[in-house]
TrEMBL record, chain A:
Ranges annotated as spanning the membrane: 21-43, 63-81, 93-113, 154-173, 185-209
Protein name: Cytochrome c oxidase subunit 3
PANTHER family the record matches: CYTOCHROME C OXIDASE SUBUNIT III (PTHR11403), NITRIC OXIDE REDUCTASE SUBUNIT E (PTHR11403:SF6)
Organism from which the protein derives: Mesorhizobium humile
Principal subcellular localisation of the protein: membrane
Domain Heme-copper oxidase subunit III family profile stretches: 1-211
Pfam families in alphabetical order: COX3
Family assignment from sequence similarity: Belongs to the cytochrome c oxidase subunit 3 family.
Localization terms from the record: Cell membrane; Membrane
Membrane topology of this protein: Multi-pass membrane protein
Record keyword Membrane present: yes
Automatic annotation (TrEMBL), chain B:
Protein name, as recorded: Cytochrome c oxidase subunit 1
Lipid bilayer topology: Multi-pass membrane protein
Biological role stated in the UniProt entry: Cytochrome c oxidase is the component of the respiratory chain that catalyzes the reduction of oxygen to water. Subunits 1-3 form the functional core of the enzyme complex. CO I is the catalytic subunit of the enzyme. Electrons originating in cytochrome c are transferred via the copper A center of subunit 2 and heme A of subunit 1 to the bimetallic center formed by heme A3 and copper B.
Alphabetical keyword list: Cell membrane, Copper, Electron transport, Heme, Iron, Membrane, Metal-binding, Respiratory chain, Translocase, Transmembrane, Transmembrane helix, Transport
Protein localization: Cell membrane; Membrane
Sequence ranges assigned to domain Cytochrome oxidase subunit I profile in this UniProt record: 20-522
Organism: Mesorhizobium humile
Catalytic activity: 4 Fe(II)-[cytochrome c] + O2 + 8 H(+)(in) = 4 Fe(III)-[cytochrome c] + 2 H2O + 4 H(+)(out)
Pfam families (UniProt xref): COX1
This protein's pathway: Energy metabolism; oxidative phosphorylation
Annotated InterPro entries: Cyt_c_oxase-like_su1_dom, Cyt_c_oxase-like_su1_sf, Cyt_C_Oxase_1, Cyt_c_Oxase_su1_BS, Cyt_c_oxidase_su1_bac
Entry annotated with the keyword Phosphoprotein: no
Main location: membrane
Keyword Cell membrane appears in the UniProt entry: yes
Length: 211, 547
């Protein structure tokens, strides 16, 4: 029972396998959540394809592309953190995690800039804000922007969750054993990659329709 | 609790609120759930009794239509979200899963405790919103009623249900990982008790379906609070989309609510007929089949919603398909009884009543799966009767069977067998008296969710209301004799029913970490045809009862 967090496990190795497995199950669950939201978007897209394509052109492609690159880079630094943790190079691991977090925060800042532009351009049909869309079929475009804000903010919330977990994990490291640290890096890393992959699907669906 | 405990048992490991509220022992977390679910069950039941009293006369003389709408909403929300979904998994499942597979605890004991807190927080939050805000949408939160017309605190209530969903997912992940990673040496998949198989199938559904419910509830909140009109036709949205998403969760959730009950019955029937379970693999695999098919039949809730006729035909066909694995189980359970040495202890009585009520309710499900019949009985009391036969006659009866069967393990005490048998019989009579008339009412065309009705329906309604009183007595009785047993009951030996299964090899109640040494399993489950019950079935460990 020594070295494991749960009394149920005999060895840290087995506990790590259980953690990784649990994270995969959780990711399966999360995939169903995003799957449902994507489904809602795709159903609306089938109904209002041309209006959605026109509305999509009002999103900022340069900022979206930049953010995609930022997030993919953060996945790279997260993978680096995993490798370094396997070799028990803890201070280097912390630096890799810090880089990952910095990239995550960068993504959120750019996303915030995008949001504020869209709000000031009158493209945010939220909370009774004015909706001043000049293109064709404004009612259908309104649904597009509604879904855009729903999907991207749900993704951003998951990213914020990832940042909080990374910060909390590193803050608690002084008291945890190397086996536990590695366990946490592996599980948190999996989650981080998953959140990135969601964005990799979201970016083309929202930004690249009929470009 | 404390004076029920014996030295060295999990009940003795520290007392007082702190030791219970901060425990990570799966057996104590099971008790936390058991106590909170019992409270919810009787609260939801009280709402049902009020409705039945109102419906005893055709006029609306006890409550107004508004209050009646709130009553059935409260009844549905409490019973489905806060009782039936967690019922057997979170209480008996939590307690027994590690014991049955020879583990010291669940894979994530702290997550298990957290899931209870999340459950309590979410459910009380939702309950407060429903009561204070007068939510009257029913438990299904259908759009556009819930988004455009309902004035109550729908967003808050939906958010509470959303929070409870997290607790469900946590339990699901915990169970799946535990079954995969913590089975004792020699305990192969096909040596697992069926209860473990059904918990596993249930957990898969919990993990994969609950997030879709979360998505649909988020979208309701977004529509009401932020004005994103995903379900609003004025804004290009589609109110029917909500029904698709909702039933994509809620039909599988029906199987979350019945599968664990099937598992309990699969444990009880072999034990009290002293026979191995007939067709073990078929029963195990049919549980998985139900979990898979359950995801493919949501459209049968929408036969009259205007969905395409082709979709209707496909969903009707798939709904007939899902009856096959259930029928496989019923036949296997019946054949288990054949040539058995059947004795009628309380758990067995409940299990046999389950068999009758589940079969009866399931056959009515075939009526509802037929397109033409469904058009006639849709949204009538026929539907109410059907799902109460499955959910109450099936699941709650199985829950009572399990509670009585494992009560000696949970508490280390025996209960009064006579009281138990009387309560089981009263429940069975009361149940049929309550819900059989509703089949007739529904077939004659009485719609659900009205607080008044034409006088010609009164005869069957009075029968149903009288039955509800009998049923209430049947459910209240265990509260008293089990409560008495908790403090005054005779000490239980470690295996009072001479049952197989690793949980019976521990003392009653079990020690804090269940097993001194992890047992090695060498035999299949339900090894009942062996003569001589003192035969050592599991080697080499043995934890003798202390008392």
């Amino acid at each position: 029972m020594s070295g494991t967090e749960s009394v149920a496990f005999d060895t840290p190795q087995r506990e790590r396998r259980a953690d990784t497995f649990a994270m995969w199950v959780f990711i399966g669950s999360e995939a169903m959540l995003f799957g449902a939201i994507f489904l809602v978007f795709l159903v609306a897209h089938i109904d209002f394809g041309p209006a959605f394509a026109a509305a999509s052109k009002h999103l900022s492609l340069p900022l979206g592309t930049f953010n995609t690159a930022v997030l993919i880079t953060s996945s790279f630094t997260m993978a680096l953190a995993h490798k370094l943790a396997v070799h028990r190079r803890w201070s280097a691991t912390v630096w890799a995690l810090a880089a990952t977090s910095a990239l995550g925060i960068c993504f959120l800042i750019v996303k915030g800039i995008e949001y504020s532009r869209e709000i000031s351009d009158g493209l945010a049909p939220l909370l009774g804000l004015p909706f001043r869309y000049a293109g064709p079929d404004p009612a259908q475009a309104e649904l597009f922007f509604g879904l855009y804000f729903t999907m991207t903010s749900l993704h951003a919330l998951h990213l914020i969750g990832g940042l909080v977990v990374v910060a909390g994990m590193v803050a608690l490291w002084p008291t945890s054993s190397p086996a536990n640290r590695l366990r946490q890096v592996v599980a948190v890393g999996l989650y981080w990659h998953f959140v990135d992959i969601i964005w990799v699907f979201m970016f083309p669906v929202l930004y690249l329709i009929n470009r | 609790m404390t004076n029920a405990a014996m030295p060295g048992t999990y009940l003795e490991e520290g007392s007082g609120p702190r030791a219970w509220l901060l425990t990570t022992d799966h057996k104590r977390v099971a008790w936390l759930y058991l106590i909170s679910l019992t409270a919810f069950f009787f609260l939801g039941g009280a709402m049902a009794v009020l409705m039945r009293i109102e419906l005893a006369t055709p006029a609306g003389d006890l409550v107004s239509d508004d209050v009646y709408n709130r009553l059935f909403s409260l009844h549905g929300i409490i019973m489905v979200w806060f009782f039936l979904v967690p019922s057997i998994p979170a209480t008996l499942g939590n307690f027994l899963l590690p014991l049955m597979i020879g583990a010291r605890d669940l894979a994530f004991p702290r997550l298990n405790l957290v899931s209870w807190y999340v459950f309590i927080f979410g459910s009380l939050f939702a309950l407060f919103a429903v009561v204070a805000g007068g939510v009257d949408t029913g438990w299904t939160f259908y759009t556009p009623l819930s988004t455009l017309y309902a004035n109550g605190w729908v967003s808050t209530a939906a958010f509470g249900v959303f929070i409870v969903g997290f607790s469900t997912i946590m339990t699901g992940i915990n169970f799946i990982v535990t079954v995969h990673m913590l089975r004792a040496p020699g305990l192969t998949w096909f040596r697992l008790p069926i209860f473990v198989w059904t918990l596993y199938a249930t957990s898969l559904v919990m993990v994969l379906a609950t997030p879709v419910l979360a998505a649909s509830l988020i979208l309701i909140v977004l529509e009401r609070v932020f004005g994103i009109g995903i379900f609003n036709p004025d804004l290009g949205g589609d109110p029917l989309l909500f029904q698709d998403l909702f039933w994509f969760y809620s039909h599988p959730a029906v199987y979350i609510m019945i599968l664990p009950g099937m598992g309990v019955v699969s444990e009880v029937l072999p034990c009290f007929s002293r026979r191995p379970l007939f067709g073990y693999k078929a029963v195990a695999m049919s549980s998985m089949a139900i979990a898979v098919f359950g995801f493919l039949v949501w459209g049968h809730h929408m036969f009259v919603s205007g969905q395409s006729a082709y979709a209707g035909v496909v969903f009707s066909f798939l709904s007939f398909c899902v009856a096959i694995p259930s029928a496989i189980k019923v036949f296997n359970w019946s054949l288990t009884l054949r040539k058995g040495e059947i004795s009628f202890e309380t758990p067995m009585l409940y299990a046999l009543f389950f068999l009758a009520l589940f079969t009866f309710g399931g056959l009515a499900g075939l009526f509802l799966a037929s397109l033409a019949v469904d058009v006639h009985v849709h949204d009538t009391y026929f539907v109410i009767a059907h799902f109460h036969y499955i959910m109450v006659g099936g699941m709650v009866t199985a829950y009572m069977a399990g509670l009585h069967f494992w009560w000696p393990k949970l508490t280390g005490r025996m209960y009064s067998e006579t009281s138990g048998r009387i309560a089981a019989t009263v429940t069975f009579i009361g149940f049929n008296l309550t819900f059989f008339p509703q089949y007739v009412l529904g077939f004659d065309g009485m719609p659900r969710r009205y607080h008044t009705y034409p006088p010609e329906f009164q005869f069957w309604n009075v029968l149903s209301s009288a039955g509800a009183v009998v049923l209430a007595i049947g459910y209240l009785m265990p509260l008293f004799y089990l409560g008495w047993s908790l403090f005054r009951g005779a000490r239980a030996v470690h295996n009072p029913w001479s049952a197989t299964g690793l949980e019976w090899q521990t003392s009653s109640p079990p020690p804090p970490h269940n097993f001194e040494t992890i047992p090695v399993v060498t035999r299949p489950a339900y090894d009942y045809d062996m003569k001589g019950l003192e035969h050592e079935r599991f080697s080499p460990h043995r934890e003798e009862a202390a008392g």
